[in-house]
Amino acid sequence: MACTTGLAGVCLAALPAHPAQAVIGGRPTSTAQAPWTVAVNLWRGTDAYPRSGQFCGGTLVTPTKVITAAHCVADEAPTDLGAVAGRTDLRRHTGAWRRVAKVWIHPRFGRHLENDIAVLTLDRPMPPGYTPLPVATGADGGLYRPGTRARVYGWGLLDDEGREANVLRSADLRVLPDRTCARLNPGDFDPRTHVCANNPVTGDHHSEGDSGGPLVAGGRLIGIVSWLSHDNAATPTPGVYTQVSAFSREIARQLRR
Fold first, then answer.
1. Which keywords annotate this record (predicted)?
2. Which run of H or of E encompasses 179?
3. Which of 54, 173, 216, 233 has its CA 20 to 30 A from that of 225?
């Protein structure tokens, strides 16, 4: 299964800074408030393993399609994967789970986490109550402006002591200027395909286990949790996200299949 210090715990070599690490800081939320948030898991462990076998996050964008990070699933067979919706507390057997029938990974996904996006096709549609989240497109440039309010969701680590979140959490962030993350991560941050966000007051950020989860602004999926940026005193703990709008054409093709 995937294994780094990053969100999914994936075994990736030469990661940019710190691969994305439940949201450190933030607050508890629920899948009733975010019905499109799904746990990506090992499907055989859905109701047997602790925490439903969850190792990454994802976003339901149609009843049968989930967007996640490529680094979450690059080393997994589709038949080993599942997705769970409507399960706020991973220790319970609530919600709906589906097997993954097919996985599309961006053909130029690289081990430095470039083009870090994948689309999972479920074996059956999720029930109608699990409302999909619209995907940002090229027409949504305003959602990427510096200062835009955004929110990240996940079940990753709660702190640097390795405590896992059993209940879904979220954190409020603001989009950062591209030049800020480019300066902190020279050669790794690409403003054409990445978006950077942080909470300058609390330092809340995503953590290990949150990889693949949603960054949401304006009622749309604008980013996919990918990795953690280098920081400094003026810019505490930025997160780097795959910029969804940059891949809207590829996503649209996958959603039609």
1. Disulfide bond, Signal
2. helix 178-184
3. 233
Could you confirm whether 210 is annotated as catalytic? no
> Taking Cα atoms as reference points, which of 27, 49, 47 lies closest to residue 171?
27
Please state the domain count of the chain: 2
Q: What one-letter code names the amino acid at 78?
A: P
- At 183-222, the pLDDT tens digits run 999 999 999 999 999 998 888 778 777 899 999 999 999 9
129: which residues sit within 8 A by CB, 6+ positions away?
Answer: 35, 86
Q: Say what the pLDDT of residue 21 is.
A: 40
Residue 11 lies in a domain: no
- Name which of 235, 203, 246, 240 is nearest 225 in CA terms: 240
211 assigned to active site: yes
| DSSP 8-state class, residue 32 | T
> Is the same domain home to 238 and 153?
yes
Which of the residues 18, 106, 116, 205 is marked catalytic? Answer: 116
Q: In terms of domains, do 117 and 127 share one? A: yes
Mean pLDDT by 10 residues, the chain (257 residues): 33 38 72 96 70 90 98 93 94 93 96 93 95 97 98 81 80 96 94 95 80 97 95 91 98 94
Catalytically annotated residue among 71, 194, 206, 230: 71
* Domain range enclosing 107: 35-132+247-255
Q: Give the pLDDT score at 20.
A: 45
Instruction: Please check whether residues 148 and 186 belong to one and the same domain.
Output: yes
